[in-house]
Request: fold
Amino acid sequence: MIRRLTEDDRELLMVLLRKEPALNLFIIGDVENFGFEQDFMALWGEIDPSDGLIKAVLLRFYRSYLPYADGPFDVEGFATIMRKDNDIHMISGVTEVVKAFDGVINFKQGKQLYFAELKELNPKIIAPYSSANNINIATVQDVEAICSLTDTIEEFESSRDGSRTSLRKTLASGTGRTYYMKREDQVIATASTSAENSMSAMIVGVATHQAFREQGLATSVVAQLCTDLLHEGKSLCLFYDNPHAGVIYKRLGFQDIGSWSIMYM
Reply:
């Protein structure tokens, strides 16, 4: 049976999501930050009649849908909900779950990313947090200096227009944090988190100024960011599609735990 979830279902939902907190960081974060009663967000759960537990969940966040299940689930039931939405833009999630909708929902295009998780930092990576290496924790006042760096990074071109607004909102709301390194008042390396919640966080926005690359600066910033989050008891994850970037993250201790698919309508 599939039904709309409410605040009364919070703990039952978390029982399911805690099984894989890294893979579920978006749903966990949205529930913790926004609850169940929002116009831009809705959650449906498939209830197992044998024990009353939630076995699968479907999140709508604005025009995007994210399904999750840790086993077989009612694909057609979730698809019926999505088909009723004439404004749907995207479906994303663990590849095995998203692929279950092949032939059930028509996708126009999509992409697949590697999904990696960090539970313990490689002890050989040292990133002491001190004024000596000039790693700082960003505030809203640092947004312009940080975006002046990311504006120059080709990989960030698609998100450039809203980067300042997005970063300000993230820092102000506490749903993410940014660390950065400066030389002569210029930000030369940075790394951020997004979708932070009580259990997990995602590493995003890793960048180094072109003139300062191949010095391990971004690695140092990411290592310090990861160290602080791990000390808070959070698991860390990230997406990547560049094998070279994957090597760098694996050196830190990240391990591939699956793949993530994004399908556009």
Notes: Helices lie at 10-17, 25-34, 75-83, 95-99, 143-150, 163-173, 217-231, 243-252. The radius of gyration is 19 Å.
